[in-house]
Amino acid sequence: MTILIEQAASGVLTLTMRRPEKKNALNLAMYRQLTAALQQARQQLQTKVVVIQGDADCFTSGNDLQDFLSAGALDMQHPVVQFLYEAASFPKPLIAAVAGLAIGIGTTLLLHCDLVYAAPASRLQMPFTLLGLCPEAASSLLLPQIAGYQRAAQYLLLGEAFSSEQAAQFGLVNDIVPAEQLLAFVAAKAETLAALPSEAVLRSKALLKAPQQALVQQVIGQELLDFQQLLSSDACQKQLAAFFKRR
């Protein structure tokens, strides 16, 4: 099992990344499962809220790079690209429960979640430049808006890791919750949200997102173009070879 999908009668859909032997690294099959689940949830009236989580020890260590590189060009047929656009435009509330590692997409995905709760000392990182790559998931747009330009530059240019406590300080994380309580806490928040009048919640999210929804889509597209070009560069190939050698 890679993505565990649970639909509760209350209207909460929980998507659990479960690949512990790889620290929940996302492979192409997992991306397809996540995208299909969100697309179905978009259409189903019984789904009011979606929770994305890992386990009590790890959210996700990011892309399974070997698998990611095998999928070819970053066009609309690529499972990662499909997931990015689906998550960025998803109309219903998304809640993330973050524990342990949240690397690469594990951090940039949070920028598209409406509520984010994290365990203490979780480690977030967007190490794109360390691999000779650039930001993705509209993080070059959204992170400076949340964290301020200089802090965003620290995390996107230097690729430095930061803690869940730091993320809470600059506004990416709503609250820090003890690890042993995190999943239950997020489930309770989701139940509370699902019990509210759904049309009011949907319209409120739409209003929050509307001012820059088109810009987010545009930036995702531009980032993907740059990302694709950098993937074939000598510098990126050298960094990726060194990464695989270490692994």
From TrEMBL:
Keywords: Isomerase, Peroxisome. Its main location: other. It is found in: Peroxisome. CDD domains: crotonase-like (cd06558). The keyword Lyase does not apply. Transmembrane segments: none annotated. InterPro entries: ClpP/crotonase-like_dom_sf (IPR029045), ECH/Chromodomain_protein (IPR051053), Enoyl-CoA_hydra/iso (IPR001753). This is Enoyl-CoA hydratase/isomerase family protein.
